[in-house]
Amino acid sequence: MSPRAASLRSTRTLSMLNFSLADVRDGLGPFLGIYLVGLGWAPDEIGFVMTVAGLASLLATTPAGMLADATRFKRLLVVVCALLVAVVNLVLLLWPQTWLIAFSQIATGVAAAAIGPAILSLTLGLVGQSGLAHQLGQNQAYNHAGNATAAVLAALAGYVYGVEAVFYLMALMAIVTVLLVLMIRPEEIDYDEARGLDKTSHQSESIVNVFRRHPMLLVVGATLLLFHLGNAAMLPLLGQRVAANEVMNPAVYTAGTVVIAQMTMIPMALLAAWYSHKNGYWLLFLIALVVLPIRGVIAATVPGLWTVIPVQMLDGIGAGLLGVATPGIVAQILRGTGRVNMGLGAVMTIQGIGAALSASYAGVIANWLSYEAAFLALAGVAALAVVVWLLLFDRSVSSSAFHGVAR
């Protein structure tokens, strides 16, 4: 069937699915650091357990992308991941032993690795390449709105009942996710489109060929590795600094940081979808990369709680643009290969190296020097991502690949 035959019900449900997944895909996120501070953990210990989650995600992302390409049970894949995250984190709450905390983060990392390619696969299967930029913008806008809503609810629950309430909120959103997945009509998913095959390609390329013939995929991965090495620990570190200094309720503060960022991401995601439809993704990447070093310097050098506003608005700009640009540019580069979701998984694997190391990198510096030194160290790494993008990525790849879809 044509991907354009997908009903409005299925595409709207896909958008709402991204809303509910916002509180599931990343697990406890920054609230984990606050919870562990309350249990008496040091910054470097928290960094190491977050690194465990990152490494688990790192190992699972490429196989998860291959699974998303191969399986016709794409809806079931999302359901299993959502329920897994909810269950293991409830177990963590009830029995907060070190080995269970580590196990819960491994499971969360694996689930997060699978959800990204699964959602891209469903999106391509429903709307095809021609509708991808628009639907990616919708997906990300709803996802960021879901993050902001979940953060507000978490703040209210955390203020009244303590940070433990966040665990139960995540379980509730997992149930909503399952119900929404079941509302997407499986007969409307084009399974060839879902893995990047088109009318000119009849079978998937070999994995070796994908990397040999499409080197810009590796440049995207290397750039995002440096970006996430500088980015992943920044928000958790902000929350930990407040919790350690006992300046205000850390659950409320962390929720505020999330809300500011997510509300900025919504218009940025829609803007990215509009811009990329005519111009490709190169400039979107560059802007997202440039704002991160600025964010780190502000976090390190501007004192006071109000620093969170510019810091998290910059986070919203970067993440809002990359949320659309990353799957979009991978789908463009690998169009016709039948390996789009594997390619996204590979990029997530490479960037996962940076994300996995970020918490430990920043945690050690914060523990031995200061939180301010850690923010500057994160900003320095992020600046390298800008250099790599400017020197190595062939911007004509994004533009030419896009216009090939537009025709």
UniProtKB/TrEMBL annotation:
InterPro entries: MFS (IPR011701), MFS_dom (IPR020846), MFS_trans_sf (IPR036259)
Domain of life: Bacteria
Pfam families: MFS_1
Transmembrane intervals: 48-68, 75-95, 101-129, 141-160, 166-184, 216-239, 251-274, 281-305, 317-334, 346-368, 374-393
Domain Major facilitator superfamily (MFS) profile intervals: 1-397
Keyword Membrane belongs to the record: yes
Alphabetical keyword list: Membrane, Transmembrane, Transmembrane helix
A GO MF term: transmembrane transporter activity
Record-given protein name: MFS transporter
Origin species: Vreelandella aquamarina
